[in-house]
Write a structure and sequence with these properties.
Layout (H helix, E strand, L loop, with lengths): L3 E4 L5 H12 L3 E6 L3 H13 L3 E6 L5 H14 L5 E4 L15 H26 L8 E6 L3 H4 L6 H21 L4 E8 L6 H4 L5 H5 L11 H12 L10 E4 L4
Parallel strand pairs: 1-2, 1-4, 2-3, 4-5, 5-6, 6-7
Length: about 250
């Protein structure tokens, strides 16, 4: 069976690392992006140079019509999806909850929660055996923030990832009989550009001493955990989590 994977938010960081590792493992990959077309094209080109197969596709996952078009493009150009990595996520500048306005909270929840629900919905509609699908695997990229709460920095982001954890458990139980497994990874302090989005590019250096392994992790280390959960090696694993957090 042809392995077809969508990685949302795959133009950089964990998403890009996952797309490239998956392509090297034999997946045909759709590299989704919202605004970073040049970076997405670079990921696709790197995959193709290495002998893999990939396409890129623009879509804001918080918008239902764009998600539907994204999956239609995959149907037409790659075939039936068998794997989904819900990686697209945003955070905004560090601040306490008392300073947040409703618009900020809505933006974070729209991408991190609504976007993941919409992509999972479209994937299930194609993977479910009751609908003629082949089954498949979904991995949600959560965060250790869901457990730690991110006080004084990103309580809204942490709450969005807590919602993703709950969705992982509920959806796993809902679609297990359809041949679909649903799991999640919870990255900790990972060296990506996201820290700059929050206003502190050097956040890893400030916090790494609080991590038992005394360092930040890499996007590739998270990608390896994702690929294991997608693979047949994890065939009896659903509704589960891998914390990629250096022991914190």
């Amino acid at each position: 069976m042809k392995k077809v994977l969508l990685v949302t938010g795959a133009s950089r960081g964990i998403g890009a690392a996952t797309a490239m590792l998956a392509a090297a493992s034999g997946y045909a990959v759709c590299v989704n992006y919202r605004a970073r077309k040049d970076e997405a094209e670079q990921v696709v080109e790197a995959i193709r140079r290495a002998g893999g197969f990939a396409i890129h596709a623009a879509a804001d996952v918080s918008k239902e019509d764009e998600v539907e078009r994204l999956f239609a493009k995959i149907d037409a150009e790659l075939g039936t999806i068998t794997a989904l990595v819900n990686n697209a996520g945003i955070l905004e500048r560090q601040m306490r909850l008392e300073e947040m306005d409703a618009a900020r909270i809505a933006r974070v929840l729209a991408t991190n929660v609504v976007g993941s629900f919409l992509c999972a919905r479209e994937a299930v509609r194609r993977m479910a055996r009751s609908r003629g699908g082949p089954g498949g695997s979904i991995v949600n990229v959560s965060s250790m923030a869901a457990r730690l709460g991110s006080p004084n920095e990103y309580v809204d982001y942490a709450a969005s990832k807590g919602a993703l954890d709950t969705m992982t458990i509920g959806l796993a139980r809902e679609v297990a009989h359809e041949g679909i497994r649903v799991n999640a990874v919870r990255p900790g302090l990972i060296d990506t550009e996201m820290h700059a989005s929050g206003g502190e590019p050097g956040r890893i250096d400030r916090l790494k001493s609080s991590v038992p392994l005394q360092r930040g992790g890499t996007a590739e280390e998270v990608a390896r955990a994702i690929l294991w959960l997608l693979s047949d090696e994890a065939s009896y694993t659903t509704g589960s989590f891998i914390d990629v957090s250096g022991g914190k």
